[in-house]
Amino acid sequence: MLRQAQHDSLNLPSLLLKTFEHKKTQLYLVLSGIFIVNALLAEIIGVKIFSLEPLIGRPDNLTAGVLIWPVVFVTTDIINEYFGKEGVLRVSYLTAGLILFAFLIIYATTKLPPAAFWLEVNGKDPLGQPINIDFAYQMIFRQGMGIIAGSLTAFAIGQVLDATVFQLLRRATKGRYIWLRATGSTLVSQLVDSFVVLYVAFYLFGNWSFDQVLSVANTNYWYKFAAAIVLTPVLYLAHFLIDRYLGKEETAELQQEAAADVSV
Fold first, then answer.
1. How confident is the model at residue 149 (pLDDT cuts 50, 70, 90)?
2. Residue-range domain boundaries for the chain
3. 24-51+61-259: what fold?
4. For a 10 Å CB count at each end of the chain, is N or C smaller?
5. C-alpha dist (Å) from residue 123 to 105, 129, 141
6. pLDDT class for 144, splitting at 50, 70, 90?
């Protein structure tokens, strides 16, 4: 019994290390899952432009995808805080590949010949007006082909900017003021992202005027600006929960490793 106790005590540091590594891996998987799902959803629903006029009394418009995009950049900041720029770019490249794969599959389905009964049973809207459900399907999803070109371009530029500015502000403030590096990196990256995605998707590949691009991009950006401010408490809540999950000493060590990311 004594020998077993001595053996267990000698292996305790190794067991604690394994537990920490497991928790760290689980944390990265959960954050990556949240990031990927919301980024993919934002791309798919981004084809819809909706009006804010009923809400604010002004004829401003937003893309539907921008509604959940704040979740993506908040998750980006949390990943950056604990896994550094390399951790952000790793999941960003994976997400870009998955978005491309998803849209290739969607595009392929628009080429499939529609079943006659499917066209028939969906041949009228609730008011009895005739519709072509296959044409509607193609129109919605093929519109996303331009969006994917714009989104992947903007996504790549925006994520690199976000990750880089976050780490630069982190070093400039010596690890203090998480709200500053999180909000600052988001505001810089989304200024570029908001314009690039709409310009490529709807101006180069679509039928929008340049003024329409500027108008919607401006509204999108200010929405993201407001969301970045409003969601700042979420960052502090995430820090609190992660500190409890990993342990304060382990969390501090992980943050130091992230801050020392040599790729910045």
1. confident
2. 24-51+61-259
3. Arp2/3 complex 21 kDa subunit ARPC3 (1.10.1760)
4. N
5. 25, 8, 19
6. low
